[in-house]
Amino acid sequence: MQFIIVLLGLTAVYFAVVRHRLSNIIIACILSFFWLWMGVAYHLLHFTAINPAAYLFAALFIAQGILFIVSGLIRKSLSFEFRSNAYGITGGALLLYALILYPILGYLQGHGYPRSPTFGLPCPTTIFTFAILLWANRKVPVYVLLVPFLWSLLGSSAAWSLGILEDLGLLVAGLLGTVLIVACNRREHRREKAVEIAH
């Protein structure tokens, strides 16, 4: 599954850069799969043996997966396109961190595979989610941000106690990603208002 999950991540990046009429649907489906996978395969089937709170985490992650289906396929309110502005560049940096720097930093700390959290597990995949959302070319529904933001706080706090320092990038992604996405939403809202007034 590790190979498949990385391939899906790269597929999402490809369809955000090389636009296709099905790009938004494909990306939303991939994000949905990631969060459903983490909710079931990680939290529900494995993490509950360590922490009973994982049942709650599983429910939140599964709900997040469903939200991506609702917002991306049903409401069609998610649209993605890489642009070389501050949002696009920040998203690109977070993508590089989630897919490349995260495992390198883990290896340097002695967290070699399979003893290190890999892409497809909550922390690096949440960073990836913020990266892709920063590539949105229209307003991102606020409800799509809630669970990733919450996990960025919970996951990074556990980084200290578990000694997985590469997870501290999760806190940066959560705070910076949320601030930038909300700012972009407000800018897009002002633009829409200006267009309405002009007409």
Concise summary:
The chain has 199 residues and is mainly alpha-helical.
Structural description of this entry:
With 199 residues, this protein is mostly helical. The protein has helices at 2-17, 23-44, 54-74, 86-108, 122-133, 142-162, 168-198. The chain has one domain (2-198). It is built from 7 helices and no strands. The radius of gyration is 17 Å and the shape is globular. The chain starts with a helix and ends with a helix.
Blueprint of the fold:
Elements (H helix, E strand, L loop, with lengths): L1 H16 L5 H22 L9 H21 L11 H23 L13 H12 L8 H21 L5 H31 L1
Helix pairs in contact: 1-2, 2-3, 3-6, 4-5, 4-7, 5-6, 5-7, 6-7
Residue fraction in strands: under 5%
Structural class: mainly alpha
The sequence of SSEs as H and E is HHHHHHH
Total of DSSP H or I helical runs spanning 4+ residues? 7
Unreliable sequence segments: none
Count the domains: 1
Anisotropy-based shape: globular
What proportion of the residues is helical, as a percent range? over 70%
Main β sheet profile: none
Number of strands: 0
In whole angstroms, the N-to-C terminal distance is 51 Å
Mean pLDDT, to the nearest integer, reads: 90
Radius of gyration: 17 Å
Defining traits:
single chain; 199 residues; mainly alpha; 7 helices
